[in-house]
Every structure is written in C-alpha cells, then in structure tokens.
Amino acid sequence: MQAFIEQMPKAELHVHLEGTLEPELSFALAKKNNVPLDYQTPEELIAAYNFYDLPSFLTIYYAAMKVLCEEEDFYQLTWDYLSKARSQETLYCELFFDPQAHTSRGIAFDTVIRGIHRAQIDAEEKLGIKSQLIMCFLRDMSAESAMEHLLMAEPYRHWLIGVGLDSDEKHNPPVKFAEVFRKARDMGLKLTMHCDVNQLNTLVHISQCLDDIQVDRIDHGINSLESDTLCEAIKARGLGLTICPVSNRFVVQSLTSNEIRQMLEKGMLATINSDDPAYFRAYLNENLIELQREGNFNTEEITTLVGNAFRVSWLPEPEKQVYL
Ligand code: ADE
Ligand code: ZN
C-alpha cells in the first residue's frame, strides 16, 4: 500500500509555503541574513514543536519567519518545497502564502511575491511540477489590512489563482472579511477559507463561508459532519474540503480517518493535504500513508481521495482531465 501511494500522481491543495520552512533552511537563512535564532541546532528547534492547538502552533510559525528577508529567500523556500513535492510524485500544487506576516516585519510585498513566482516558473520548467498561488489574509488582523493587501496584489493579479483566510479563527468569523472577498471575486479570483477542526463557533463559520461569502472551497471543514444541512449544501455545490490528517492529530489526537470515511460515504469531495509539513513533520505521502494505516482504507478509497484533489483543483477543466 505504501508503494502504491508513493507512486501515484498526486495534487496538493492545502500547503502554506511558510509552513514548509525546514529547520535546516531556517538555520542557513539565519546565518546569511544575520538573524539571531532561539535555538542552537535544527534538532533543538524540532524538539520545540509540541503543538496542542492552533495558537500554540501559530506562535512558533510566525516567529520562525524572521529569517525570510530577501527575494532569494522566498525563491529558495518555494523551490525547496516544490522539489520535495515533485520527489513524492506530486505533480500539481496550490500554494498558500501569508504576505501580512512579512509586510508587518518591513518586507515589501513585491519581494515576497516575486521570489515565490520565479521559483514556480523554474520548478514547472525544470522539475515538471505545476503550481498556482493563493494569497491568504490573516484573520486576526483587520479587514482594512486585508483590503490594503488585496490592492497591493492588483498589479500581480495574474500570478494569483485565489485568496484564502487563515491564522487564529477565534472571534474572527468569515463575515469580518465579506467586503474583501467580494472584491477578490470581482477581480476574478477563487475564494477559500479555513474552518479549522474544533474551533469556537465552527458551524456558524462554515455556514457563513457557504451563504455569506459563497466560497469555492473550504480548508479543513471536518466539523461540517455535525450538520446534515451543511453536508448537503457542501455536496450539492460540489465544494472540495482540503483535510490535513497529521495537522488534525495535533488538535484532536486522531488523523480523523473516521470523519474522512464518513465524507467518502456521503459523496463529499474530501482531499488529503499536508498544511505545514515542515512543522508537522509529514509531507503529502506521509499524510496519506499514515491515514491509510489508521483508517485501513483500500486502494479504491485512496484513489478517490487523490482523484478528488484534481477534481476540485482550480486547474482549467481540460488540464484536470489529464490526471483523472
Ligand atoms: N496558518 C498556517 N497553518 C494554518 C492552519 N492550519 N490554520 C490556520 N492558519 C494557518
Ligand atoms: Zn492551513
């Protein structure tokens, strides 16, 4: 089964580029940019990855970004992730990035997006892995800041496929960003939002995603299973759910294999993803392999999960068909 998963052509729809920052690259960039780190070795840093909820992860995730300073650093981060993904037979990725986490440290928006874009072009040409970029807004920052960043992105509109919403969900509902997402849709961008597992008011958040924002996809969305109405609406609209099993394990001590099986049984379009693979120490293959073991999924179920990622991807329809 492991070999079957490893050799399958795969797509990844939920990966934060900043969450692919491996400790080794972090130390190399810290040295190059003269940035002090709180740890002496990559091993010591990894030992500090004992997350138990979303905020405990986000604190370490944002602190580590201070080593990303120049365009070349964003290039390297993106190139390294795409190389790793390609080595796992992942042929297509939709990549999240968090510009506000960089502009708030004085790094120019252009520096971030130019480095990422250049690596995407090179990786497609030299490695044969295609990717598209999704700009995320940090939901614990203001809607005004999100709008400013959407305006900053306007000259780069054609380097983006969509916008997303991530970071701390508590007291930061989807409707806080209704105007920003309306404008993004008017710009021709696709819309997605995080509804992380077991968050406060999660069913309200999922319902706002569907009715107020009219998202094109939901990131995580595991708790939708608690409501038949939400499940029906998600299914009727053909919305994909980007589930991240190893990421979930930090919060609910399970790879959510039961929930993923229920989604498959209901005909919901669940997909498997890695979220922040450098922090959760699992890329796409490891997520699929561990999930298969926990849930004892058969080859048909795994094929459906992997196929769903291509089905609900934001690739043009003819390109999807190549993989299905
Ligand atoms: N930013 C990076 N990873 C995230 C996650 N899993 N949830 C919310 N925000 C994030
Ligand atoms: Zn995420």
Give descriptors for this structure:
single chain, 324 residues, alpha/beta, TIM Barrel, eight-stranded parallel β-sheet, 17 helices, 8 strands, 52% helix, globular, binds adenine, binds zinc ion
Number of DSSP helices? 17
What number is the mean pLDDT? 98
Helix-and-strand structural type: alpha/beta
CATH class: Alpha Beta
Order of helices and strands: HEHHHHEHHEHEHEHEHEHHEHHHH
| Largest sheet properties | 8 strands, parallel
End-to-end separation in angstroms reads: 20 Å
Bound compounds, each kind once, are:
adenine, zinc ion
Shape: globular
Radius of gyration computed on alpha carbons: 18 Å
What's the helical proportion of residues?
A: 40-55%
Q: What's the CATH superfamily, by name? A: Metal-dependent hydrolases
Sequence stretches where pLDDT stays below 50 over 5 or more residues: none
- Any guess at the CATH architecture? Alpha-Beta Barrel
CATH third-tier fold name:
TIM Barrel
Compute the number of structural domains: 1
- The portion of residues forming beta strands comes to 15-25%
Q: What is the β-strand count?
A: 8
